Amino acid sequence: MSAIDFPVRIALLDDHPMFRQGLRYILSALPYVAEVVETATLSELLVCCRERQPDVLLLDLQMPGMDGPEAAKLLLDEFKDLKIIVLTMLSADKFITQMMRLGARSYLPKDADQDELRQAIEDVLITGHHFTPRISRALMRGVQQPTRQPATTRLPDLVQLTPREEEVLRLICEGRTAAEIASRLFISRRTVEGHRQNLLEKTSAPNSAGLVVYAARHGLLDS
């Protein structure tokens, strides 16, 4: 059972009508989804958002006459609470890294199955993000490739983490969900979210993607 107990409005931005229609059919069957709005262009989406902002946007990066990252930046500048899940055929690390750093809440391939899409939407609505091993690997490679930092066993003294916070951080970097982390560490999901919030505050990371970047930069993932 989903923990979502409020009506959810989802918008789609994709220029392929059949793909949008298929998504709409799948999403409309979710018990908490009250409305699914289809848009084929950024201008259509902007009109939709200004009339009534959706909770979640499923965004394709490959659109005629539209730069996906620029579109995301424009949308997030105006609609700061919009939760963007990228749904695209582009799988290169550079796209994943760019979109996560811009503020996307997750990044999925278009061939993701229905269960994975549903889980991503629910995680984003409940915890604010849906992190996968693919996202983690892309972020870590992006940080480590230019200038690899020497390995250290702990984060710098400037940021003191508890042993449990370090455990949670490592599992976040592996792409584990809050539920998976809770199960692994035998703690509640609420406790996991509390540790994650503490990590964000201590590291000044904007989101989970920022936590992965921080951990990779400081060699935590090499130990």
From TrEMBL:
Residue intervals of the Response regulatory domain: 9-125
Residues covered by the HTH luxR-type domain: 154-219
Chloroplast listed as a keyword: no
Membrane-spanning intervals of the chain: none
Gene3D superfamilies in UniProt: 3.40.50.2300
Pfam short name (any one): GerE
Cited PROSITE patterns: HTH_LUXR_1, HTH_LUXR_2, RESPONSE_REGULATORY
Keywords: DNA-binding, Phosphoprotein, Transcription, Transcription regulation
InterPro entries (UniProt xref): CheY-like_superfamily, NreC/VraR/RcsB-like_REC, Sig_transdc_resp-reg_C-effctor, Sig_transdc_resp-reg_receiver, Tscrpt_reg_LuxR_C, WalR-like
Modified residues (4-aspartylphosphate): D60
PANTHER family: NITRATE_NITRITE RESPONSE REGULATOR PROTEIN NARP (PTHR43214:SF41), TWO-COMPONENT RESPONSE REGULATOR (PTHR43214)
Protein name: Response regulator transcription factor
Taxonomic source organism: Hymenobacter negativus
